[in-house]
Amino acid sequence: MDEQKSVSTEKCLEESDACKIDVAACKQMKARVPEIAEKIIAHCDSQECYTHIDYEPIPSEGFVSDLIDHFRALLFPGYFSKEKLDPANMKYSLGRTVSVLYDMLAEQITHHVRHDCLRYHLPCSECEHSGQVKAIAMLESIPRLRQLLSTDVQATYEGDPAAKSHDEIIFSYPGIYAMTVHRVAHRLFELGVPLLPRIMNEHAHSLTGIDIHPGATIGPRFVIDHGTGVVIGETTQIGTNVRIYQGVTLGALSLPKNAGEQFRGKKRHPTIEDDVIIYSGATILGGDTVIGARSVIGGNVWLTESVPPETMVLMEHPRLIYKSANDRKV
């Protein structure tokens, strides 16, 4: 027993010494932090560091999630309200949501407009008044956005045998979430609100894997099936009753170096006419590329030229190689 106690005591002493060594090492490391901090701060003045260190207000990304939640509560009444919505309290509850959303939206639009004015030395745009006017215009668009989203939900239901109800689609389909955010962001984009629409769509992108630029124009009855990996560029134009699957890219052709200013604002992404289906993995590029009405673009197709209406474009059937277990042995 005495021998065991002696071993135990020696072990404790060794651990104690090790702890003392760790404490000393920790102090040495910690002492280096102020010097490193000075270097990091000094590097902020370098051209290699993008900073936003100034006195003008910076837009608040944290508000985006709340804004989207309030918009969803109005666009799909009763589905995303924080409290039960019934005929008795509907007027009060939705009225309160409209009022809160107006205040939030007017403030955020004002911040974004003022940010651009001061950051880029633009002429005064009466940012606070502009924020209020654009917020009112946005709220007035709610019935139209509801109508568009209802066509998206209905088209999704009609084309998906796995969907048991409209409720399931509204609650759980990533394509509907992405399109809800996009239809709001696109309207803000049309109203000339800077930055905020892009932040909203990137928020939806981070949650769904669906990347839609707020500038993209998308008609009614639009369906994104599954959705992961879908990319829709800024100047894309999509007609009525179009369905696309996961992994589809509606993008721009590769641009020459330093061509940003030359091509900014010009048509760089394809036009998809009415009643088109685009299957998974297809890539369609270029501002002059038009996919004609009622066409079908097969999976993994790569297109940089237009397709006439009522055309089916398919990849040539691949040659598959089958090997038995015996064939694989070396």
CATH architecture of the largest domain: Orthogonal Bundle
Alpha-carbon distance between the termini?
61 Å
- How much helix is in the residues? 40-55%
Q: What value does the average pLDDT take?
A: 88
Instruction: Describe the sheet with the most strands.
Output: 5 strands, parallel
Stretches where pLDDT falls below 50 for ≥5 residues? none
Q: Please count the beta strands (DSSP E, at least 2 residues each).
A: 14
The tally of helices reads 10
Question: What topology, given as strand order, has the largest sheet?
Answer: 1-4-7-10-13
Structural class: alpha/beta
Order of helices and strands: HHHHHHHHEEEEEEEHEEEEEEEH
According to CATH, the homologous superfamily of the largest domain is: serine acetyltransferase, domain 1
Radius of gyration equals 28 Å
Gross morphology is globular
What fold name goes in the CATH topology slot of the largest domain?
serine acetyltransferase, domain 1
**CATH class category of the largest domain:** Mainly Alpha
Question: In what range is the share of β-strand residues?
Answer: 5-15%
Overall tally of domains:
2
